[in-house]
């Protein structure tokens, strides 16, 4: 029996809409998925990580692969790789939890989520579940949804714990091999760039400056022309090379300002800025606040 696949974009089936500002402020948003197949949608870049329980038959076009989902599966997506979903039926069903890296790593300066086997570029983000695992995953998502609406003071910590349980459940499993590998030079060079960028962090010493700061320097390290690097990264992720570098530097700057006693001058130097003024201007441009103001706000939150 043949079917026609219709790419869809998720929407929330409850009365609550997915408010991007709310996601940005809280760092997470969970919801049940019940979406009708609709008009074709191109790849979209998301600004968040996602763990989803997909209970519909579909194909996920992820980076340079098409991954078939023929039974209930856990799906892991990162904000650096655009993807689309083609449903093999009338509806896309399941559960999703969206979250930022800052939410998952609050009070924790461990390795970036990009280095996780589940979220790293080039990994296989789909894990098919048996009946027992489906019941377990549905139970975890149910707990996340209930906790999201609770008034519990530490519900963020509890939701992080539930997400970690889903992550560890997937890590115990063998990834599905039901995908078609495409020869895509842009995807390969983008994966190499993102992995090279991530290896620069975390910054451990205020006396050791970042060795790579510009798209040209990354291109030189990778042995490619900077124009080729920029085209590849933009094609695969939807964002320029410089945007990825800036976002990762800002993320590390926030962590250093929050979790260390380094002076802003030391933070600036460790991140490759020759003068603190350059760092202040860069930080304010990307966050609308100064490093000192960000540190003061973080301290007030810790004291509250």
From TrEMBL:
InterPro entries: Homeodomain-like_sf (IPR009057), HTH-like (IPR037923), HTH_AraC (IPR018060). SMART domains: HTH_ARAC. SUPFAM superfamilies: Homeodomain-like (SSF46689), Regulatory protein AraC (SSF51215). Keywords: DNA-binding, Transcription, Transcription regulation. Residues 198-297 form the HTH araC/xylS-type domain. This is AraC family transcriptional regulator.
């Amino acid at each position: 029996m043949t079917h026609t696949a219709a790419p869809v974009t998720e929407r929330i089936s409850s009365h609550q809409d997915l408010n991007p500002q709310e996601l940005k402020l809280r760092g997470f948003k969970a919801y049940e998925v019940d979406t009708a197949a609709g008009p074709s949608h191109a790849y979209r870049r998301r600004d968040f990580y996602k763990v989803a329980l997909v209970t519909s038959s579909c194909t996920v076009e992820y980076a340079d692969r098409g991954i078939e989902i023929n039974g209930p599966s856990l799906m892991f997506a990162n904000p650096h790789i655009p993807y689309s979903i083609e449903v093999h039926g009338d509806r896309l069903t399941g559960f999703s939890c969206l979250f930022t890296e800052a939410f998952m790593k609050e009070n924790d300066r461990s390795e970036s989520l990009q280095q996780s086997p589940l979220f790293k570029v080039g990994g296989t983000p789909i894990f098919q579940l048996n009946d027992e695992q489906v019941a377990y995953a549905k139970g975890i998502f149910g707990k996340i949804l209930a906790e999201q609406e609770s008034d519990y003071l530490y519900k963020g910590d509890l939701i992080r714990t539930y997400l970690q349980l889903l992550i560890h459940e997937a890590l115990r499993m063998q990834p599905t091999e039901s995908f078609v590998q495409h020869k895509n030079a842009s995807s390969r060079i983008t994966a190499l760039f993102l992995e090279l960028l991530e290896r620069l962090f975390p910054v451990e010493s205020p006396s050791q400056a970042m060795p790579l700061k510009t798209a040209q320097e990354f291109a030189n390290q990778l042995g490619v022309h900077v124009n080729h690097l920029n085209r590849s990264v933009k094609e695969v992720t939807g964002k320029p090379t410089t945007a990825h570098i800036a976002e990762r530097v800002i993320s590390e700057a926030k962590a250093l300002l929050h979790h260390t006693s380094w002076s802003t001058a030391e933070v600036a130097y460790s991140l490759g800025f020759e003068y603190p003024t350059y760092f202040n201007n860069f930080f304010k441009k990307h966050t609308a606040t100064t490093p000192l103001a960000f540190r003061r706000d973080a301290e007030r939150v810790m004291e509250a």
